[in-house]
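Summary of Year 1 activities. Much of the first year was spent building the evaluation harness for sequence design. The harness presents a backbone, in tokenized form, and records the residue chosen at every position. We chose the following record to illustrate the format because it has been used consistently in internal testing since the harness was completed.
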């Protein structure tokens, strides 16, 4: 990469690191409306004229959904709304950025950032049954589709075992009567799921004593679960795995002591929940070991202390290229900067163009910032400029 091109990349990369830092200060603030932090971010966006640089603008807005994976989410929706209002982002772009979070899309609609016309257009062209189920109250309220037409759409989109007309009608009745407020929780609405999330062991014991209960029962409510990992490709996860996701140590211990089934993949759910007691039990008693999937989950859910524990204490092996790959997937500019600096100072020869390219070519999706600037990056010769 020529010096001029390299300097251009460095200036843009430093801007993204600063974006990330200012954004984190807003999200991490204990204040509901951190005005000083808002002012700092908005001033920076104005100073660099963010909308005049399409690649930087795209990189910044793709950073926003990563906040949903943070352990701390105090007043998250309103904080994101404040930023989106400042940026004046078009509804089409909002749908694209937050397409995996129906709960937030609903919030943006109710707050007026997405209007009825755009919601109606998205509903009529959507190819996801979860989205149509979730927004069925709006579909009926605003007469976007007749019930007959909605059922016809859903029959085409649902797997064969679920596309029975009577079953769909029954689900839609439930949506009409029960879910307008509870769906905003963003997670499964079944009794057992709510009990596990609250780690209410007394209510759990009462629940399983009063009705038939399988210890390996699957929790599945894909229309309401906003986390795609927990949805597990609409296959659901076991009660044991669900307890891991929410750090519900008391219910986890009961299920574990009663030999609930689990797989190698199950261990990754403990990283999402971030409960060290659960992680240590799995570490000491599981027949499986934490692997690279746990590394990916720790990065995705921003469990950096656990990430350090996995790598430095449990000695989970992960190539540097894979670390960069996972950070690219999460648009984590600060961590990419850290890892490049770290290995540069150690003068590790494996930080090469080949490693960077491998990471980038495996980073599918909206990663244009990395692709455009790092394709010919000579990291060994230039990294000290970062």
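For this record, the design step produced the sequence shown next.
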């Amino acid at each position: 990469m020529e010096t001029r091109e390299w300097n251009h990349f460095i200036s843009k990369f430093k801007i993204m690191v600063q974006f990330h830092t200012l954004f984190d200060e807003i999200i991490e603030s204990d204040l509901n409306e951190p005005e000083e932090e808002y002012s700092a971010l908005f001033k920076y966006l104005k100073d660099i004229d963010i909308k005049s640089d399409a690649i930087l603008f795209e990189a910044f807005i793709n950073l926003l959904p990563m906040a949903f994976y943070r352990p701390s989410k105090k007043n998250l929706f309103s904080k994101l709304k404040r930023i989106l209002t400042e940026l004046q982002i078009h509804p089409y772009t909002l749908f694209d950025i937050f397409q995996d979070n129906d709960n937030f899309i609903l919030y943006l609609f109710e707050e007026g950032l997405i209007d009825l016309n755009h919601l109606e257009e998205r509903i009529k062209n959507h190819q996801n049954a979860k989205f149509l189920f979730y927004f069925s109250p709006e579909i009926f309220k605003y007469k976007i589709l007749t019930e007959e037409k909605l059922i016809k759409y859903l029959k085409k989109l649902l797997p064969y075992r679920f596309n029975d007309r009577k079953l769909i009608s029954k689900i839609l009745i439930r949506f009409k009567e029960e879910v307008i407020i509870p769906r905003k929780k963003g997670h499964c609405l079944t009794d057992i799921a709510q009990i596990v999330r609250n780690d209410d062991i007394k209510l759990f014991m009462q629940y399983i004593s009063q009705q038939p209960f399988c210890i390996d029962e699957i929790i599945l409510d894909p229309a309401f679960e906003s986390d795609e990992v927990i949805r597990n490709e609409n296959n659901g996860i076991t009660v044991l795995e669900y307890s891991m996701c929410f750090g519900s140590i008391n219910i986890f211990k009961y299920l574990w002591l009663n030999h609930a089934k689990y797989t190698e993949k199950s261990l990754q759910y403990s990283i999402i929940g971030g409960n060290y007691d659960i992680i240590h039990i799995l570490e000491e008693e599981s027949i499986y070991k934490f692997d690279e999937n746990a590394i990916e989950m720790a990065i995705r859910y921003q469990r950096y202390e656990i990430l350090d524990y996995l790598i430095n204490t449990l000695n989970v092996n992960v190539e540097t290229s894979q670390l960069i790959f996972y950070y690219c997937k999460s648009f984590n500019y600060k961590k990419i900067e850290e890892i490049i600096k770290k290995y540069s100072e150690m003068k590790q020869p494996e930080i090469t163009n080949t490693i960077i390219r491998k990471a980038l070519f495996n980073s599918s999706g909206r990663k244009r910032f990395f692709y455009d600037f790092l394709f010919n990056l000579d990291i060994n010769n230039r990294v000290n400029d970062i």
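The chain has two domains: 3-185, 186-304. Quantitative recovery figures across the full test set are reported in Table 2.
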